[in-house]
Write a structure and sequence with these properties.
Number of strands: 8
Number of helices: 10
Helix content: 40-55%
Structural class: alpha/beta
CATH topology: TIM Barrel
Distance between the termini: 37 Å
Strand order of the largest sheet: 3-2-1-8-7-6-5-4
Largest sheet: 8 strands, parallel
CATH superfamily: Aldolase class I
CATH architecture: Alpha-Beta Barrel
Mean pLDDT: 94
Oligomer: single chain
Order of helices and strands: HEHEHEHEHEHEHEHEHH
CATH class: Alpha Beta
Protein backbone atom coordinates (compact mmCIF):
# COMPACT_ATOMS: atom_id res chain seq x y z
CA UNK A 1 0.00 0.00 0.00
CA UNK A 2 1.22 3.52 -0.80
CA UNK A 3 0.51 4.99 2.64
CA UNK A 4 1.45 3.65 6.08
CA UNK A 5 -1.19 2.63 8.60
CA UNK A 6 -0.15 5.65 10.70
CA UNK A 7 -0.96 8.00 7.84
CA UNK A 8 -4.34 6.35 7.30
CA UNK A 9 -5.10 6.68 10.99
CA UNK A 10 -4.12 10.35 10.97
CA UNK A 11 -6.70 11.08 8.28
CA UNK A 12 -9.44 9.02 9.95
CA UNK A 13 -8.69 9.31 13.68
CA UNK A 14 -12.16 8.17 14.74
CA UNK A 15 -12.56 5.53 12.01
CA UNK A 16 -15.44 7.58 10.58
CA UNK A 17 -16.09 9.63 7.47
CA UNK A 18 -19.13 11.87 7.14
CA UNK A 19 -20.05 11.76 3.45
CA UNK A 20 -22.34 14.37 1.89
CA UNK A 21 -24.18 13.88 -1.38
CA UNK A 22 -26.82 16.59 -1.59
CA UNK A 23 -28.67 18.77 -4.10
CA UNK A 24 -28.20 22.15 -2.40
CA UNK A 25 -24.71 23.63 -1.98
CA UNK A 26 -25.47 25.79 1.05
CA UNK A 27 -27.23 23.00 2.91
CA UNK A 28 -24.44 20.58 2.05
CA UNK A 29 -21.86 23.00 3.38
CA UNK A 30 -23.67 23.59 6.66
CA UNK A 31 -24.12 19.85 7.13
CA UNK A 32 -20.45 18.95 6.68
CA UNK A 33 -19.38 21.96 8.74
CA UNK A 34 -21.62 20.65 11.50
CA UNK A 35 -20.02 17.20 11.26
CA UNK A 36 -16.52 18.68 11.27
CA UNK A 37 -17.25 20.79 14.32
CA UNK A 38 -18.89 17.82 16.05
CA UNK A 39 -15.56 16.02 15.97
CA UNK A 40 -16.19 13.31 13.40
CA UNK A 41 -12.64 13.88 12.22
CA UNK A 42 -13.08 13.43 8.48
CA UNK A 43 -15.69 14.70 6.04
CA UNK A 44 -16.10 13.96 2.35
CA UNK A 45 -17.88 16.10 -0.23
CA UNK A 46 -18.90 14.15 -3.31
CA UNK A 47 -18.43 15.62 -6.77
CA UNK A 48 -22.16 15.37 -7.52
CA UNK A 49 -22.89 17.99 -4.90
CA UNK A 50 -23.31 21.43 -6.52
CA UNK A 51 -20.14 23.55 -6.27
CA UNK A 52 -18.40 20.58 -4.65
CA UNK A 53 -14.84 21.76 -5.16
CA UNK A 54 -15.61 25.32 -4.09
CA UNK A 55 -17.15 23.87 -0.93
CA UNK A 56 -14.02 21.82 -0.26
CA UNK A 57 -11.82 24.91 -0.52
CA UNK A 58 -14.17 26.88 1.70
CA UNK A 59 -14.36 24.11 4.29
CA UNK A 60 -10.57 23.73 4.41
CA UNK A 61 -10.31 27.43 5.26
CA UNK A 62 -13.05 27.18 7.87
CA UNK A 63 -11.97 24.10 9.81
CA UNK A 64 -8.20 24.32 9.36
CA UNK A 65 -6.47 21.33 10.90
CA UNK A 66 -9.41 20.35 13.10
CA UNK A 67 -10.94 18.10 10.44
CA UNK A 68 -9.75 16.32 7.31
CA UNK A 69 -11.64 17.11 4.09
CA UNK A 70 -11.83 14.67 1.19
CA UNK A 71 -13.35 14.64 -2.30
CA UNK A 72 -15.65 11.80 -3.28
CA UNK A 73 -17.18 10.26 -6.40
CA UNK A 74 -14.00 11.00 -8.33
CA UNK A 75 -14.64 9.07 -11.53
CA UNK A 76 -12.00 10.40 -13.91
CA UNK A 77 -8.71 12.27 -14.09
CA UNK A 78 -10.39 15.64 -14.71
CA UNK A 79 -12.34 15.46 -11.47
CA UNK A 80 -9.24 14.21 -9.66
CA UNK A 81 -7.25 17.24 -10.79
CA UNK A 82 -10.05 19.58 -9.74
CA UNK A 83 -10.15 17.90 -6.34
CA UNK A 84 -6.41 18.31 -5.88
CA UNK A 85 -6.62 21.98 -6.84
CA UNK A 86 -9.46 22.51 -4.37
CA UNK A 87 -7.27 21.37 -1.49
CA UNK A 88 -8.87 17.97 -0.90
CA UNK A 89 -6.79 15.87 1.49
CA UNK A 90 -7.84 12.52 0.06
CA UNK A 91 -9.67 11.20 -3.01
CA UNK A 92 -12.45 8.62 -3.16
CA UNK A 93 -13.67 6.70 -6.21
CA UNK A 94 -16.93 4.71 -6.29
CA UNK A 95 -15.34 1.91 -8.30
CA UNK A 96 -12.05 1.01 -9.97
CA UNK A 97 -10.56 4.07 -11.66
CA UNK A 98 -6.83 3.39 -12.15
CA UNK A 99 -6.19 6.78 -13.79
CA UNK A 100 -7.03 8.53 -10.53
CA UNK A 101 -4.29 6.61 -8.71
CA UNK A 102 -1.53 8.33 -10.63
CA UNK A 103 -2.90 11.79 -9.88
CA UNK A 104 -3.29 10.97 -6.19
CA UNK A 105 0.25 9.63 -6.07
CA UNK A 106 1.70 12.72 -7.77
CA UNK A 107 -0.18 14.98 -5.34
CA UNK A 108 0.82 12.89 -2.33
CA UNK A 109 -2.81 12.27 -1.44
CA UNK A 110 -4.35 9.17 0.08
CA UNK A 111 -6.54 7.27 -2.37
CA UNK A 112 -9.69 5.38 -1.43
CA UNK A 113 -10.75 3.24 -4.40
CA UNK A 114 -14.13 1.55 -4.64
CA UNK A 115 -14.56 -2.20 -5.09
CA UNK A 116 -17.10 -4.89 -4.32
CA UNK A 117 -15.75 -8.40 -4.85
CA UNK A 118 -12.49 -9.89 -3.54
CA UNK A 119 -11.13 -9.77 -7.11
CA UNK A 120 -11.92 -6.06 -7.39
CA UNK A 121 -10.42 -5.41 -3.96
CA UNK A 122 -7.18 -7.05 -5.11
CA UNK A 123 -7.27 -5.00 -8.31
CA UNK A 124 -7.75 -1.79 -6.32
CA UNK A 125 -4.70 -2.59 -4.20
CA UNK A 126 -2.67 -3.34 -7.33
CA UNK A 127 -3.79 -0.02 -8.84
CA UNK A 128 -2.46 1.91 -5.84
CA UNK A 129 -5.35 2.24 -3.40
CA UNK A 130 -4.36 3.08 0.16
CA UNK A 131 -7.81 2.14 1.39
CA UNK A 132 -10.33 0.03 -0.50
CA UNK A 133 -13.93 1.20 -0.24
CA UNK A 134 -16.23 -1.82 -0.17
CA UNK A 135 -19.34 -0.40 -1.82
CA UNK A 136 -22.25 -0.83 -1.47
CA UNK A 137 -21.52 -2.58 1.82
CA UNK A 138 -25.03 -3.11 3.21
CA UNK A 139 -26.74 -4.71 0.19
CA UNK A 140 -23.95 -7.25 -0.35
CA UNK A 141 -23.91 -8.61 3.19
CA UNK A 142 -22.95 -5.93 5.69
CA UNK A 143 -20.54 -6.77 8.52
CA UNK A 144 -20.75 -10.50 7.75
CA UNK A 145 -19.40 -9.85 4.24
CA UNK A 146 -16.52 -7.76 5.59
CA UNK A 147 -15.64 -10.48 8.06
CA UNK A 148 -15.67 -13.07 5.28
CA UNK A 149 -13.43 -10.94 3.04
CA UNK A 150 -11.05 -10.42 5.93
CA UNK A 151 -10.25 -14.16 5.88
CA UNK A 152 -8.17 -14.25 2.68
CA UNK A 153 -7.34 -10.50 2.83
CA UNK A 154 -6.38 -9.72 6.43
CA UNK A 155 -3.97 -6.90 5.61
CA UNK A 156 -6.01 -4.76 3.19
CA UNK A 157 -7.39 -1.62 4.92
CA UNK A 158 -11.11 -1.45 4.16
CA UNK A 159 -13.55 1.45 4.14
CA UNK A 160 -17.25 0.55 4.09
CA UNK A 161 -20.11 2.67 2.81
CA UNK A 162 -23.39 2.33 1.00
CA UNK A 163 -26.47 1.81 3.15
CA UNK A 164 -24.46 1.82 6.37
CA UNK A 165 -26.36 2.91 9.47
CA UNK A 166 -25.05 4.59 12.61
CA UNK A 167 -26.17 1.63 14.74
CA UNK A 168 -24.02 -0.66 12.57
CA UNK A 169 -20.76 1.25 13.03
CA UNK A 170 -19.50 -0.92 15.88
CA UNK A 171 -20.33 -4.14 14.01
CA UNK A 172 -18.43 -3.03 10.91
CA UNK A 173 -15.38 -2.03 12.93
CA UNK A 174 -15.48 -5.31 14.82
CA UNK A 175 -15.70 -7.17 11.49
CA UNK A 176 -12.45 -5.54 10.40
CA UNK A 177 -13.32 -2.30 8.63
CA UNK A 178 -10.80 0.50 9.12
CA UNK A 179 -13.19 3.35 8.21
CA UNK A 180 -16.99 3.56 8.18
CA UNK A 181 -18.53 6.06 5.78
CA UNK A 182 -21.89 7.47 6.82
CA UNK A 183 -24.14 9.26 4.35
CA UNK A 184 -27.94 9.11 4.45
CA UNK A 185 -28.26 7.90 8.03
CA UNK A 186 -26.16 10.84 9.21
CA UNK A 187 -27.27 13.55 6.80
CA UNK A 188 -30.92 12.53 6.85
CA UNK A 189 -33.00 14.24 4.13
CA UNK A 190 -35.68 15.45 6.53
CA UNK A 191 -33.06 17.05 8.77
CA UNK A 192 -31.26 18.62 5.82
CA UNK A 193 -34.37 20.27 4.42
CA UNK A 194 -35.36 21.53 7.89
CA UNK A 195 -31.85 22.87 8.53
CA UNK A 196 -31.81 20.85 11.74
CA UNK A 197 -28.06 21.13 12.26
CA UNK A 198 -28.35 20.48 15.99
CA UNK A 199 -30.03 17.15 15.30
CA UNK A 200 -27.27 16.25 12.82
CA UNK A 201 -24.67 17.13 15.45
CA UNK A 202 -26.41 14.74 17.85
CA UNK A 203 -26.27 11.99 15.23
CA UNK A 204 -22.55 12.67 14.87
CA UNK A 205 -22.16 12.17 18.60
CA UNK A 206 -24.05 8.87 18.33
CA UNK A 207 -21.72 7.76 15.55
CA UNK A 208 -18.65 8.70 17.58
CA UNK A 209 -19.98 6.78 20.55
CA UNK A 210 -20.64 3.74 18.33
CA UNK A 211 -17.03 4.00 17.10
CA UNK A 212 -15.80 3.87 20.66
CA UNK A 213 -14.79 7.52 20.97
CA UNK A 214 -15.00 8.31 24.67
CA UNK A 215 -15.01 12.10 24.56
CA UNK A 216 -16.29 14.23 21.72
CA UNK A 217 -16.87 17.94 21.90
CA UNK A 218 -19.66 19.44 19.83
CA UNK A 219 -19.45 23.08 18.82
CA UNK A 220 -22.68 24.76 17.66
CA UNK A 221 -22.74 26.03 14.09
Amino acid sequence: MAKSSEQVTSLFPNHLAAVIRWKDADEAYQAVLTAARAGVGSVEITSGTPQAFELISRLRREVGDSSVVGAGTITDSSLAKMAVESGAQYLVTPYLVPEVAEIAREAGLLLVMGATTPTEIAQAVAAGADLVKVFPAAPIGGPAYIQAVRGPMPDVPLWVSGGVGILEVAAYLKAGAEVVGLTNDLFRPELMTQHAWGAIAELCQQALSAAGVKQAVSTPV
